[in-house]
Each structure stands twice: as structure tokens, then as C-alpha cells.
Amino acid sequence: MLSLPVRRGAVRLPARLGRHHLHNPSSPPHAYLQPLIASLPASETSEELESVMSLIMDRKETRNALSGRMVAELREGIAKVSADRSARVLLLHTPHPNVFCSGADLRERLTMSPSAVSSFLTSLRSMLAELEALSIPTIAVIDGPGLGGGCELSLGCDLRIGGSGAILALPEAKLGIVPGAGGTQRMAKLIGGARTKELVYTGRRIGGEEAERMGILNFLARSPETAFSQALLTCRQIVTSAPLSLAVAKKAIDAAPYLPLEEGLTLERELYDSLLGTEDRMEGLKAFKDKRRAKFLGR
């Protein structure tokens, strides 16, 4: 029988307890993890959203530039989500309007030696790999510029939802470097090599509508909706699906670009078969028969 892995050391705070501080609690964090409902007005909270976690970037003064500390705190948050069996969806977002992530903290970068820069990049790449490896769906909520490392951060998520302020760019060649945290690889897998080359060669910024047309954004919220409200709608749609089904679907889809078709189909069949003996599958059939919403437990 397939079940979600037991995630040892899970720490879930009730919404009333607020943030998980991921660094020195005596100073404001650059990033923190909390239940989504902790940041929602009472009118928008619901039981189904209790399983959604928020990984929040909070450096308004730098437009969420990726400092070494922020990357470390993001990694800690991702590790906590990975260890939390009750988490069903992760939202990556910020409380600040018209902001997403401006990329690497260039002021900090000026003080760093080449070896320190290399260590930072290793940590950033590891963080994105850990984000990408989460078994639950992940959503980047982009309502401002996602530049350089900020764009790469969004590419580490399963879905990207943009708002009216969404801007994406890979401008590293203008600084004498190249995208170093997966931008050349994840973007090319998403939209193809030719389009990725054009974005990297020119470094130009693209708005939400163009990003949606190119397939970088899954959704672009249009007034009066916002990226965050569209993300909430998407979360509500996702959490009604069986968590085991989502986990194995993600595994199959993520493997697809690397496998010949026949091998991919074999993997798909193996993953399908792994669900046949689960309680959630039986619950889905019973709910269909009873004409009610299924209550999936992840086992």
C-alpha cells in the first residue's frame, strides 16, 4: 500500500502562533514559513486551505533581493515543508505589492570574494533543487519584477501565477555572467532553446501578458483579480485532489523530459499501479458513488 512518507520532526504552528522564524528571532527574518491562513482575513479562510503553507520573502527595502541569509532561510522553510506530512500545497510569495524578487543582492555581492560568490551560488542552486524536489505542488505568486535569480526562483516552482505587475528577465549577461541557478536549463525546458537564448542574449524584460503567451506563466490574473487571489483559487482546486495522486503525477511529469517515451509510459504504469491499493483510491470511488466530495487522507 502506498502512503505519504512519515516526515519526522514536523513542526506545524497553528495560525494564531504566526510565523516560523527561520533565523535569529531577535531580528526580522528575510524569509519565513507560516500556514497560509495566518495571513488571510477571516472571510477568506476555510478548512480546505489549512493544508496550504506560505513561504514568504520579506525584504521590502531591497525588493526581496536574495541575500545569503534569505537563501538559508528559504532552505530551512523548504526543509520544514518537506518534513510536514499535512502540507498539501506551498505558495512562494511576498506580502509587499508590486514586488517578487529582484535577484541576487548586488550590494552584498560587492563585498564578496570569488570563493564566497561561488559558495552563495552553490547554496542558491541547492535551494532550488530542494524546492523542485518537494513532493507537493508549489506555486510562485509573481506580482512584481522577478529578475535574474528571482526569475530562476520562480522556475523552481511547479506553477507560476502572475499579476498586473509581473515582469521577468534573465539579465545576467549585462553583468558579465550568465544565469547560474538553473535559468538556462529550466527556462529552456519550459519554453525551448531559441526563446531562452533570445531572453538571455538580450536580457530584456517581459511583462505578464508576454510571459503568459510564451508559457512561462500558467495564469495571468486580470483586474479585478490579483495574482494572490488567483493563487488561492488554484490552491482550492488542488487540495480537493488526492495527495498521493499529486505526488506520483509530479514524479511522472518531472521525469518525462529525460526518458524515451516507452520508458516514460512504463514509469507511468508503475506509478498508477502503486495507487491501486490505497485508501484514497477507494475513498474516491465511494465519493463518486455517493455524489459527494472525497475526503482524502494521503494513504
TrEMBL record:
Keywords: Lyase. PROSITE patterns: ENOYL_COA_HYDRATASE (PS00166). The keyword rRNA-binding does not apply. It comes from the Eukaryota. This is ClpP/crotonase-like domain-containing protein. InterPro entries: ClpP/crotonase-like_dom_sf, Enoyl-CoA_hyd/isom_CS, Enoyl-CoA_hydra/iso, Enoyl-CoA_hydra_C. The keyword Methyltransferase does not apply. GO terms for cellular component: mitochondrion. GO terms for biological process: fatty acid beta-oxidation. SUPFAM superfamilies: ClpP/crotonase. It comes from Dioszegia hungarica. Belongs to the enoyl-CoA hydratase/isomerase family. GO terms for molecular function: hydro-lyase activity. Pfam families: ECH_1.
